Amino acid sequence: TYDNSLTAVITSITPNFGSAYGGDTITIQGTGLTTGFSLSLEALFSSVTQVVSGTQYTCVTEPKVFGSPDTFNAFISNNGVSIKDGVMFTQYYDWSNPETWQGDFPPQNGDSVLIPKGMNVVVDSEKVGLLRAVIVEDTYFKPEVNPLHVRTFDAEYILVHDGGLLQIGTEADPYTSKLIITMHGDRKTLKIPTYGNKVIAIRHATLDIHGAPIDKVKS
């Protein structure tokens, strides 16, 4: 049995994503976050730095452990694990940062790229050179505040597979600037079995796109 009034509930984390290199200040809100509250996100959160009325906490993130899952648990001393109410927090590596590529340059023209599960790469470069194959298990295109901003991404093949996610904006934070993804190839280009060439292929995975809201006008 349990007493719902004693169960802590996390209702939001702001922002809900941050740098894989840590150092982001995040605010956690909920109910029943009493004294003794602690967080665990694969050791990504440091100790609580501020408490406000038992409903809001401020924490600073630690660097992400490569490959660690983006799940977290919150504990209340003597009261067990809190309810997360669908709240997620994800840490990303920036495409433009050489550290994402072990100190090498970001992928150049003609390169092939594998983005493994748990890496969570954010494409933040304005222009990505013509890549050959991009194998995706977790990738996110970063929305820009400026609606006139243009980002381009060119490749011959994009394959999202094995439970992976290619996300362009979210329902809460849609992609409201311009993104141009161009697939390259012709009838002579080698084909991926089942999917062909010059293709964004989705196999046991998710392509999630949220653009600018469209005003519905009745005629």
Walkthrough of the structure:
The chain contains no helices and 16 strands. The chain is an all-beta fold. The strands form three sheets. Strands 2, 9, 10, 11, 12, 13, 14, 15 and 16 form a nine-stranded parallel β-sheet that branches. The chain has a four-stranded antiparallel β-sheet with strand order 1-3-6-5, with no helix packed on it. Strand 7 and strand 8 form a beta hairpin. The termini are far apart.
Q: Can I get a quick summary?
A:
The protein has 219 residues and is mainly β.
Helix content: under 10%
- Cα radius of gyration in angstroms: 20 Å
Strand content: 35-45%
Largest sheet: 9 strands, parallel
Mean of pLDDT: 81
Could you give the topology of this structure?
Blueprint: E1 9-14, E2 17-19, E3 25-31, E4 37-40, E5 50-52, E6 56-60, E7 73-76, E8 80-81, E9 90-94, E10 113-115, E11 121-123, E12 127-141, E13 150-168, E14 178-183, E15 199-203, E16 206-209
Parallel strand pairs: 2-9, 9-11, 10-12, 11-12, 12-13, 13-14, 13-15, 13-16
Antiparallel strand pairs: 1-3, 3-6, 4-7, 5-6, 7-8
